[in-house]
Structures are given as C-alpha cells and as structure tokens.
Amino acid sequence: MERMGMVIALKPDKIEAYKRLHAAVWPDVLAKISDCNITNYSIFLKRPENLLFGYWEYTGSDFAADAAKMAADPRTQEWWSVCMPCQEPLATRKEGEWWAMMEEVFHHD
Questions:
Q1: 51 - beta bridge partners?
Q2: What is residue 36's predicted lDDT score, i.e. its pLDDT?
Q3: What are phi and psi for residue 60, nearest 5 degrees?
Q4: Rounded to 5, what percent of the chain is helix, strand, coil?
C-alpha cells in the first residue's frame, strides 16, 4: 500500500459549488476510483488560502496503468469537466500534473 498526498488551489468563487459536488459524488465515479485500487480517499479544504489537500491509499501494483484506466473512463472525464473549472493548479506542479503530488516525510500508525 502506498499513501499519496496532493494539493491544488480552489477558486474562491467556486468553493460552495465544489463542496456541493463532493457532497454527492456520482456513484459510478466512486466505483471507478475503487476499481483503480484507490482507497481511503479524502479531500480537505484549508481556508482562507483555499487549498485542497487530497489523500488516498493506493493498493495496486501499477499506479500509472490504473491512473490511465481512470483517465480513459468517460464518466470520470465528465466528472473532471465539472470539477476542474473550480480548481487552480499550482504553478510549481510538475509537468503533466493537475494536482501537485506531495512527498511523504512522516507517517505513524
């Protein structure tokens, strides 16, 4: 199992819309997340900076393949098309990232 954290900014005028979307995530999107070996997925909002912190645990053996499978899913693409306009990627993210992936520096069970 691999713990993964990521961060992105949330546009101030989109906060309530984003929270409404995530209060009722589409069931087929949730099923695809699980199908791609992602568990224990949470998103946190930090105000007033309007930063989103995402965390999940990846239980598969090929994250790149599972990420590609998720990205190819039409319903997931539709979900992203309504979520992404709410988000503002960080200028410091790596090429090809939307959410900036973070380095784990500490963990305690």
A1: 9, 46
A2: 98
A3: -85, -170
A4: 40, 30, 30
Q: Which residue matches tokens 């305690």? A: 108
Which contacts qualify for 18-26: CB closer than 8 Å, 24 or more apart? 18/83, 18/86, 18/87, 19/45, 21/82, 21/83, 21/86, 25/79, 26/75, 26/79
Closest by Cα among 3, 8, 4, 5 to 99:
8
Q: What residues does each domain of the chain span? A: 2-90
- Give the pTM: 0.93
What band does 45 get if pLDDT is binned at 50, 70 and 90?
A: very high
The DSSP bridge partners found for residue 6 are 54, 101
What residues pair up with 33 in beta bridges, in sequence order? none
pLDDT per residue over 76-102, tens digit each? 999 999 999 999 999 999 999 999 999
CATH no., domain 2-90:
3.30.70.100
Q: pLDDT above 90 covers what percent of the chain?
A: 100
Task: Give CA–CA dist 75/78, Å, rounded.
Answer: 5
